[in-house]
Amino acid sequence: MNIVGVDLGGTFVKVGLVDSLNGKIKRKTEIETQVTSGKDSVLKRIAEAIQKITAGENYIAVGIGSPGSIDKKRGIVRFSPNFPDWNNYPLGPELSRILNKSVFIENDANSFVLGEKWFGAGQGYEHIVALTLGTGVGGGVISHNILITGSNGIGGELGHVIINPQGPLCGCGNHGCLEAYASATGIIRMAKEKRKKFPDSEIFKANEITAKSVFDAAKNGDRLANKIINEVVEALAIGITGFIHTFNPSVIIIGGGISRAGDILFKPLRERVEELVMPSFKNSYKILQSPLVENAGILGAASIVLQRIGKRD
Amino acid sequence: MNIVGVDLGGTFVKVGLVDSLNGKIKRKTEIETQVTSGKDSVLKRIAEAIQKITAGENYIAVGIGSPGSIDKKRGIVRFSPNFPDWNNYPLGPELSRILNKSVFIENDANSFVLGEKWFGAGQGYEHIVALTLGTGVGGGVISHNILITGSNGIGGELGHVIINPQGPLCGCGNHGCLEAYASATGIIRMAKEKRKKFPDSEIFKANEITAKSVFDAAKNGDRLANKIINEVVEALAIGITGFIHTFNPSVIIIGGGISRAGDILFKPLRERVEELVMPSFKNSYKILQSPLVENAGILGAASIVLQRIGKRD
């Protein structure tokens, strides 16, 4: 069967028509979000994009992965930092009215773990912890086959678990959250802080410091870059060890732009986590790189529908 | 209906006949565990204790809260640190054979959260995080009404979430676990470490340093005792903030010997957690002291049965 997945971002909205049996994206399109045009305009253009890619094809429902705090039962965006006029916006019901289809919404980090479960590295597992390492750190947990969202649906904020109370200030106001280390923001901050001590680092040769330039420099043996990656790995290892002790998951799946660094991140991370976990947890889990890459958003959004209806055919 | 709850400890086994409708313990008894007598002897004496307190009364099943790693599906104690000859011992099936009743087993920290849900401060809630602060720190989580035990049934080890990687060595081999601060072991360690600097502290007036003597001294204004409690509170607040961000629970319930310190622990803890949680989580939870006190073990064990059969009458 076909499902529409909508990956709602602050800059772009990606819309895809997904074959739920194999996760193939039959058609997709991308529009600019243009938040400042107002929510009615954004809604109208999302609906048009869906109508365009589904022309002549049947589909059963729409899933939307949205940033922010979501009331999943009622399909309402409670608030979303980059969408200032969307407070308590009934995005689901409004879109459903235009399209005459069911619309399901989840927070985008939660839809990421669903995408991994239905189409990615989490297939066949009932206990999955997922992290997206991008500008920030998003988290999503499936435990006992249930998406863990908590009493108000706002759980799974794994990026804001404090892993070092003496650590750097995080955007949330606390010190030493996982996000303060294992995000592009954290990596760039660390590079800037150490610039005086390592003025000749390859990191500073380009116009702009990015997480990618740090990983690239590390692969070339750059000392500062490797120091930064050690910090990222240590922070991730401490956080993931806690998640393993808490959830006893079968797999920990890491996605987002930073995950594409590959072995230079995953090899030391796997070693360090295996050192840190308690004996009974050793070899009880795998740490995997998300295979979904640029389709993670659309497939995650489509998976919201599969998770709610509990089947794929 | 009646249920038998068995609280299996390293020193004592408490056995109670519980009325599941109101959590009243109709009869109870306590026997010495005598682990060194061998598992067959312990089993036989547990069975006799159950037969004694249930004489003339019908009961539907037995729940056992056991330390260690439990295979709940098969009723097997995989291993338990204080029960060296119990590796892979089929405690459930063996006891079931003697009594001709169903026997359900859970890890004791998990049975604690179940006891709170069915008979304690967690009644009516579907999202509960529970901590027992004793010699160590035990954890149990109910999320979306499901006991979170993970893929091998060993999750919920909230005492071994690392909250400060520069912190003191924990019994598990890592540094700065929650247990290294918020347990009797951690409190006594902190007192001993600071003895030279605070030789006149009231804590050292008694023959033995205990967690209780530290809390008592703090209530009398003792400086060192208050410093230690500040550390306990800070560690618990960091850990609990992480659990709130992860699970978005309705209630966090704290039991175990240290919880009996009462307001001197709970008041600063509530204030500090509310400071640390992100804005969307403020006022989303309550931190409660376990009301079950010395019956927590038996009621928790009885609750294992209720959780498995999903009802209390």
Characterise this structure.
- 2 copies of one chain form a homodimer.
- Helix content of chain A is 35%, strand content 21%.
- With 313 residues, the first copy, chain A, is α/β, with parallel strands linked by helices.
- Chain A has 2 domains: 2-114 and 294-309, Nucleotidyltransferase, domain 5 (2-Layer Sandwich); 124-291, Nucleotidyltransferase, domain 5 (2-Layer Sandwich), CATH 3.30.420.
- In chain A, strands 3-2-1-4-7 form a 5-stranded mixed β-sheet. In chain A, strands 10-9-8-11-12 form a 5-stranded mixed β-sheet, with helices on both faces. A two-stranded antiparallel sheet of chain A has the order 5-6.
- In chain A, strand 2 and strand 3 form a beta hairpin.
- The radius of gyration of chain A is 20 Å and the shape is globular.
- The model of chain A has no long low-confidence stretch (mean pLDDT 95).
- Chains A, B: Its EC number is 2.7.1.2.
- Chains A, B: Belongs to the ROK (NagC/XylR) family.
- Chains A, B: This is Glucokinase.
